[in-house]
Design a protein that fits this description.
Length: 80
């Protein structure tokens, strides 16, 4: 069985999740729901309710994505 195809860092994961809505957990403890627009170098460009946000990947502790089917397909993960 092949190992899952998971990027090495959170920026890599976010690159795979372009155009998807996710929740980002920041180092400050804040959680923000965003739509990922792009990732350029270490900067995530996302949108919230009529606002653009630019976040350095080093400030992100976790990514929460709701759709199990989406995640399993994008990263070749099996779930039960």
């Amino acid at each position: 069985m092949n190992a899952p195809r998971i990027p090495e860092n959170l920026c890599g994961i976010l690159r795979e999740l372009k155009k998807e809505k996710v929740v980002l957990l920041l180092e400050t403890g804040d959680r923000i729901e965003v739509k990922i627009l792009n990732v350029v170098d270490d900067i995530v460009i996302a949108s919230t309710d009529r606002r653009f946000v630019f976040i350095n990947c080093d400030c992100i502790c976790a990514i929460i994505a709701d759709c199990v089917d989406l995640i399993s397909t994008r990263f070749e993960l099996a779930y039960e």
